[in-house]
Structures are given as C-alpha cells and as structure tokens.
Amino acid sequence: MNVFLVDVRDENFCRLLPEQLNRAGSGDGRIKVMAFPPLGIQTLAPVLRQRGHPVRMFDTCHPRMKAEHIAQAAAAERPAAIALSFLSTTTYPAVKQMAERLKSQAPEIPIIVGGPFATVNSDRILKDCPAIDCVGIGEGEELLPDYLNHLADPGSVAGLVWRNAREIVRNEPRPVLRDLDQFPYPDRTSLPIDYIESLPLDVPAVLSLDKFCTIQTSRGCPYSCIYCDIPSLSGGRWRCRSPEHVLGEMQQLNDLGYRSIYLTDDHFLINRKRIDGICCGIIERKLEFKWGCEGRVDSVGIDQLPIMSQANCNFLAFGVEAGTQKVLDRLNKKQTAQQVERAVSEAKRQGIARVHGFFVVGSPGETEADIMESFRFAARLKLDTFGFNRLCAYRGTPLWREYVERGIIDDERDWHKWFKCTDIDPTALPSSVVNRARMKGYALLFARRIFWRPIRTFNLLRTFGRHMKTADIIKLIASPFRRRTLTRKPELPARMIDAGLEEPVRVAVPVS
Ligand code: B12
Ligand code: SF4
Fold first, then answer.
1. pLDDT by residue (tens digit) across 318-361?
2. DSSP 3-state of 297
3. Protein residue closest via CA to atom 91 of ligand 1
4. What percent of the chain has pLDDT over 70?
5. 136 Cα–ligand 1 center, Å
6. How far apart are CA 424 and CA 196, in angstroms?
7. Are 366 and 344 in contact (CB under 8 A)?
8. Is the distance from CB of 472 to CB of 204 less than 8 angstroms?
9. What is the mean pLDDT of the chain?
10. Which residue blocks in 192-260 are alpha helix, DSSP H?
11. Strands 31-34 and 193-199
C-alpha cells in the first residue's frame, strides 16, 4: 500500500544554506539545508518498504515539499495513508495546518500522526483537529505497518488512538520494542537534501560542510530531570542496539561518504562495555568520520573517553544546567558540580575537540546570584562552547505536572502550549531580571574566556571562520546580547489570560 511519510519541521530549526556557502553545489537539484535530518521518517521508510509498502518521503524544510506540494502529490497519487511525523510542541500548529490542508484536498485519505508530542497528547490532538484521523503512540516500526494492514479495522491496531464516528477510542497499548537490531538501517538517500552540520541559531553558524547525518544507537533514559519528557516517553527504560548492528550502519555511512555523524541517543554514555565495543569497531574498521554525542556527567562512560577520542569522537555535550547545588537539586539533576568539573576536564584531557555545556536559567527558586554563579562556573570549566537557555515546561514532564498541581497550568486548556518558567512561575525570577543577569553573565564569560583561554577562543572562531562570513561571526558573538525572534513564541496559561495577567503574581522575592 502506497504511503506518504512527511516530516513536519519547526521553521526555527532549519534554514537553507546561504548561497555563498553553497560552493559544492552540484547542479543536480539537491538542496543544502542547515538542520538535523528527519531521522523518524528515515527510520520508518525502509521498515515499511520491507513489509511491501511503497513509500514517498517529504521533508518540509525543502522549498518544494510544503503543504501545497504534498497536497498536489496526494491528489495525483492517492496514497493509502499519509503519516505526519513531528517532534515537539513547537511544531504542532504547523502539523495542524498541514493536516487541514491535506484533508481539504483529499478527504478520503486517512491521516495518522506520530512522534514524541503526539505520543503525549494523542486524545487531545484528535479532539482538537478533526483533519487528523488517528495518532500512533510511541515507536512506529511495528505500529505503522500494522495500521496500513488494518486500515478498515483500526480497532485491532495496538498503540493506536483513533476516531470512531464522534468517539475517541484508545486501543490497548503496544509494548516497547525489545529487539532494536531487527530493523533495516534508515533511508538517508531518497530525499534530495544534504543536511549541513550547524548550530540552530538565527545566524548561519555552519560547523562543517562534511557530509553529515544523525544516528540513534539507543533509546530512553532512566533519570527524571524535572524538565525532560524522555523518561515518560521511554517508560524510564534504556534500550540499545548491539555494537555489531550499530557498526554495520556506521560502515554503511562511512562507505556512503558521511564524515560527520551525530548520535541522537538520549543517553549514549550509559554502558561502558557497549561504548567500548562500538569504539573498538570504529578503530578496527578504520572508519573515517568524526562523531559527537550527548551524555550525563556522572556516566560510567566518562571512563571510556580515551577510547572514544581514539575512535574520532570530536564533540561531546553535557547537561551541566547550573552552577549551584541548590538549583541542580531543584531540577532533580542528581549530579554535583564536582562531577561536572571532572567530566569536562577529562573530556578535554583526552583530546575531545569540542566540549559543550547546556545550561538553563530562570529555574524555579533561582536567584540572580545563582545565575551569576552558573556563569562563573562556566568560565572556570574547560568548555569550548556553551548555551544558556531559559528553562521551559513541556507537557509530559514532571515540571508540567507540578505546575498543574500548583494550579498554574490548566491541563485541559493549556496542553498544546509550552511555557518559560519565568513567564508563569512566581518562584522564578521575572524575565527582565533573568535577561539582564544573562547578558551580564555572558559579558563576564566572554571576557574571562578571551583573557584566560585566548588560544582556544581563537581556534573556535577559526572553526566558524572556515564557513562563515566575518559579519556573521560578529553577529553570532553578539547574539546572546540580542533578543531572538522565534516564529512561534511561548504563550501564557489560560488562567493567567482569564485573570488579565501578563506576569505571575510574585508575592515574595525568592531568596537563596
Ligand atoms: C535530536 C533532537 C533535536 C534536534 C532536531 C532533530 C530534527 N529532526 O530536527 C534539535 C537539537 C534541533 C532539537 C530541537 C528541539 N527539540 Co528536540 N529532540 C531531539 C531528540 C534528542 C532526538 C530526536 C530523534 O532523533 N529521535 C530518533 C527518531 C528515530 O525518533 P522519532 O523521530 O521520535 O521517531 C520515532 C517515533 O517517534 C515514531 N514516529 C515518528 N514519527 C511517526 C509518525 C507516525 C505516524 C507514527 C505512527 C510513529 C512515528 O517512530 C519513530 C521510530 O520509532 C529528542 C528526544 C527523543 N528521544 O525523542 C528531543 C525532543 C524531541 N526535543 C524536544 C524539544 C523540546 C526540542 C525544542 C523545542 C528545544 C528548544 N526549546 O529549542 C527544539 C524544537 C525542534 C523541532 N521541533 O524541530 C523534546 C520534545 C518535548 C515536547 N513535548 O515538545 C524532546 C522529546 C526532548 C526532551 N528532552 O524532552 N531536538
Ligand atoms: S535531561 Fe538527560 S539525564 Fe535528564 S532525564 Fe532527560 S535524557 Fe535523562
């Protein structure tokens, strides 16, 4: 059965490569986009084909794969179903618009949606958007083929939430996949798009023009940081592919000419033996690509940094989050500043070229002094790059549930929104104070950087300089001091709107 697989993009996280960087333009109609590849549909396409279903893939970052083009193709080709894939809350309005457009053009073609946000909000999506016929919960490898084989009998498809006349039916759940080695490798060749390794910023921060792709070698995470959806998506369990299966895919990527690979695992550094197996394989097979991953600072994998470095790992991102134990504990991070220092130093000592720190500001209970301490902490660490984002609450996280219990969020009316804590939580500092502290913090961090680590700073700028115009590098450095304009901004909770409030009522200023 013919099926369309569509990755619906968040426009804030993809951008066509600027013309002047498109040196390697081959003139074959392929386009270059600064974005992560759509690994969800790339993963599902070959599984569907293996089960006998022809697939056509679309990625809406392509200028000729927008809603109108997909609607035209659907009207001409009449696929048996259209599957829309998307990751986060921020993309839901685009998905809704896409579904409405496709439905108006081809009403008889069923539309199924899936991905992390859809998994957490299935019933509500169906109530909210009549153009969407059903939602697939969780992993799609078995669910989607099962659905295509039972289009006339959706009640028999485990994991499906669907509309039966006006009633929304939630079928029995589908167990999570046990054997992740059983599936074919993702299809990275069908889409006419080259994905460029970049930072998702509002200036074109291209990291390299090497052939780039993502790979997922494990799923899930057993921790429970209050701002993270992953434990609720994975049931708090970590599952992995065997090193042999991963290496088979890596060999294929190497042979296809990929020279830069990013692991999108939620927690790659969790199992020492497995890291060892994968890294030894990369070395033995003489695979040529460089790769990067994310992990916790307290992971056993920190002991594997020497072999990771030998196996061409050149990028490692740690969730540092904050420089005070008080804030780390409030975030339920279950890590200490000492563990952060050890992990970052060890990564640098072992020669990992770029070590990145993710920080958050504007957490509940955080004071201005805490924010400044996070910046001072970042300045002490041997990090190469860092990002300080405002803490946000997404549905499915412990923080969201806390806000529902505290009466800040109305789950029924606010489910499709996401919030900056500073905008809604009276125990968080006001946005204006956080912005001011963040600018001050960045200024301090940059000054210390240039003074204490001039060579590293110069090398980093040189990396950017390889593919970026000087004007853009200046814009990039200035970007923390400018307001970023998102195409979709966080909203306010329904109760605050009812009460005509633009800020939470702060009865007392939080003290440290
Ligand atoms: C890599 C990644 C990114 C990359 C972007 C990837 C991309 N393609 O553009 C970057 C760094 C840019 C990014 C940015 C953001 N991300 Co992000 N990201 C991830 C991460 C770590 C992995 C995604 C991935 O590669 N998965 C691997 C593929 C194979 O899985 P998949 O796409 O989910 O597909 C599987 C299933 O979902 C299902 N499926 C998928 N599609 C369909 C369709 C149908 C019909 C069916 C039945 C099934 C199905 O089958 C697939 C195979 O099993 C996830 C965490 C996670 N584990 O999901 C967070 C995650 C999705 N991101 C998240 C967030 C919040 C964001 C941001 C909003 C962060 C921010 N404030 O800036 C932005 C928004 C980006 C966007 N919407 O495009 C949250 C979403 C939570 C929420 N409720 O919204 C997650 C869950 C992380 C978290 N800690 O909670 N992200
Ligand atoms: S932030 Fe990282 S460590 Fe924390 S629950 Fe999410 S994936 Fe796990």
1. 999 999 999 999 999 999 999 999 999 999 999 999 999 999 99
2. coil
3. 87
4. 93
5. 15
6. 36
7. no
8. yes
9. 92
10. 230-234, 243-255
11. parallel
Q: Is 10 in the pocket of ligand 1 (CB under 6 A)?
A: yes
Q: Enumerate residues lining ligand 2, CB below 6 A.
A: 221, 223-225, 228, 230-231, 266-267, 296, 319
Give the model's pLDDT for residue 90.
94
Per residue in 138-171, pLDDT tens?
999 999 999 999 999 999 999 999 999 889 999 9
Dist. CA 220 → ligand 2 center (Å): 9
Q: Residue 191 C-alpha to ligand 2 middle, in angstroms?
A: 31
Answer whether residue 116 shows pLDDT above 90. Answer: yes
Give pLDDT, residue 484: 61
As beta bridge partners, residue 215 has 263
The rounded Å distance from CA 323 to ligand 2 centre is 17
Comparing 80-89, 201-210, 397-406, the range with the smallest average pLDDT is 201-210
What's the pLDDT tens digit per position in 123-142? 999 999 999 999 999 999 99
Best of 88, 221, 232, 270 for a ligand 2 pocket test (most atoms within 8 Å of beta carbon): 221
Testing ligand 1's pocket by substitution, the residue of 3, 10, 87 carrying the most ligand atoms inside 8 A of its CB is 87
Distance CA 198, CA 206 (A): 4
- CA dist 291 and 208 (Å) reads 12
Place of tokens 């219990």: 405
Q: Is the CB of 91 under 6 A from ligand 1?
A: yes
* Cβ of 228 less than 6 Å from ligand 1: yes
CA–CA gap between residue 306 and residue 115 (Å, rounded): 35
Strand partners, 218: 240
Which residue would you say has higher pLDDT here, 460 or 396? 396
Please tell me if the CB atom of residue 198 comes closer than 6 angstroms to any atom of ligand 1: no
Q: List the one residue out of 191, 194, 102, 177 whose CA is nearest residue 141.
A: 177
Write out the DSSP string of 97-153.
Answer: HHHHHHHHH-TTS-EEEESHHHHHSHHHHHHH-TT--EEE-S--TTHHHHHHHTTT-
| Residue 112 alpha carbon, nearest atom of ligand 1 | 45
For ligand 1, say whether the CB of 81 is within 6 Å of any of its atoms. no
Residue 164 and residue 151 in contact, taking contact as beta carbons nearer than 8 Å: no
pLDDT digits (tens, 9 = 90+) for 12-39: 888 888 776 665 555 667 899 999 999 9
Mean pLDDT across 199-203: 61
What pLDDT score does 491 carry? 87
Q: Are 42 and 96 in contact (CB under 8 A)?
A: no
Task: Give the DSSP letter string of 197-236.
Answer: EEE-SSS-EEEE-S-EEEE--EE--S---TT-SHHHHHTT
Smallest CA separation from ligand 2 atom 7, residue: 266
